[in-house]
Amino acid sequence: MKNKFYAEIFNHSGAWYHRANQLFPHARDEEFKAALSLLSLEDHSRVLDVPAGGGYLYDYIGSLVSYSAFDFSTEFAKSRRVKLCSETHIPVDDSYFDTAVSLASLHHVKDKAHFISELRRSLKTGGQLLIGDVVAGSKESIFLNGFVNDWNTLGHNGDFLCIDRDVQLLKKIGFTTQTVIKEYHWNFDSEPACHEYLRLLFALDKTPAETLLDDAISELGITKTNAGFHLHWSLGFILATVT
Fold it and tell me: Which residues of 30-66 are buried (b: 16+ CB within 10 A; e: fewer)?
């Protein structure tokens, strides 16, 4: 099967993805908070979020920050909060933003070097880029390129974060870097809610049986408490500063 990249994937399944986040708006609270814990956003600072999906990060950064969201998918650009761009051209001024964020999406970007160069162009000297993505070889990468690949019509063939390789790329483009891996949970009221979220988020349109989905998420790790059902997840983060 021909490899698919971000725009094609989410022009096809963006409505599914957005529906998941509308129905379960707090499922990934810990993920967004984990990302933002690595930044020190000041009032009135300018933040660029790309590709932003439905602009979900906005709800976590506070109203005093100037937030700009762009995405490569026409489906996400239907949102009033999100404008359309491409991997190789983001229609913003040079050296305009204090911070750029690219969360859980780089593994579907075709030309990483060109995209990261565009992000650097948009940032002021001393500005910061935060990349968060699934780490190659992790349980999450196996789930996505295995289970999701099997049950999504378009498949899933993510080129996940390789810390050493991607740090070298960022340095070549003009950044200094720090790295960390954050572990956290996606949280739900119940196991059926978790199942529904995953079916929508990953567009599992080939309809895996509940038992197969149970087995797949057990490999990721789950915790059941009085507060609900918690799916274990993690991302690797690279915090890069413009030199």
Answer: bbbebbbebbebeeebbbbbbbbbbbbbbeebeeebe
Domain contains 18: yes
Here the CATH number for the domain that contains residue 83 is 3.40.50.150
Q: Which structure tokens are listed for 46?
A: 């300018």
pLDDT of residue 85: 98
- For the chain, residues with pLDDT lower than 50 are none
Q: How many domains does the chain have?
A: 1
Strand pairing report for 123-133 and 97-103: parallel
| pTM over cut 0.70 | yes
Reading the block at residue 90, the tokens are 């983001």
Q: What is the DSSP string of 108-144?
A: G-S-HHHHHHHHHHHEEEEEEEEEEEPBTTSHHHHII
Residues in CB range of 142: below 8 A, 6 or more apart: 219
CA separation for the pair 222, 92 (Å, rounded): 41
Tell me how crowded residue 1 is: count the other CB atoms within 10 A of its CB: 8
| Residue 114 belongs to domain spanning | 6-136+158-186+233-242
Q: Where are the beta strands (DSSP E) in the chain?
A: 46-49, 66-71, 82-84, 97-103, 123-133, 175-188, 222-225, 228-242
